[in-house]
Amino acid sequence: MGLRSVLYGAYERRLARALTPTAIPKHVGVILDGNRRWAKASGARASHGHRAGGDKVLEFLGWCDEVGVEHVTLWLLSTDNLSRSAEELSALLEIIEDVVERIAASGRWRVHPVGALDLLPAQLTQRLKEYEDSTRTVEGMHVNVAIGYGGRREIADAVRSLLQEHAARGTSIEELAEILDVEHIAGHLYTRGQPDPELVIRTSGEQRLSGFLLWQSAHSEFYFCEALWPDFRHVDFLRAMRSYAERERRFGA
Length: 253
Prior knowledge:
Blueprint: H1 3-18, E1 27-31, H2 35-41, H3 46-67, E2 71-78, H4 86-105, E3 110-114, H5 122-134, E4 142-149, H6 151-169, H7 173-179, H8 182-186, E5 199-202, E6 221-224, H9 234-246
Helix pairs in contact: 1-9, 2-3, 3-4, 4-5
């Protein structure tokens, strides 16, 4: 073991010791960005990067579990990604299904698919629901797998669901307009019943949300990391936790 590895390990342990349970976010959202660029840099196919990124997901969930995170939302596939070439999309969906299956098979975490599942192949949608059902009684960390997800689509779906619910009750549009508030819409989001993410992490150096959890992230803290997702290390995760712990959250302007 070289000196660099020894120093790196010591630094990592120091970061871990500095974290206190009260300073850990209950809900962490993650934009897993950079898989394709990671593959391109090594001259490999995009699917190679997606598979490396899928392996990183299991590592990341383990790190979250270790520090006491209760909810994680992983953005695995956006609605925009559905327009990629048939070859790449087919490989990507296969990798995503494998990742979700491994999360469920671990027996450690609850799986909850979020997104416009009606846009996905019917067989994949069915399998995702099966993974959710099989982990429903697991008491561990709650893992939202955002697949075919877009923030604007989520808000539109929430409003549509709200209108359908009140139409079934016989509520008129005028009556609904009188009582409608933000909590009504929040109660129809994909993540309803869960705390909003206190921390959103994005890898690859990009500094934008790209529509991720638009409603829920109103008061989130953001951490942007230069590492491409397959290269995201435990020390990068610990730095994100430290950065969050050091911030003064104002919940306002």
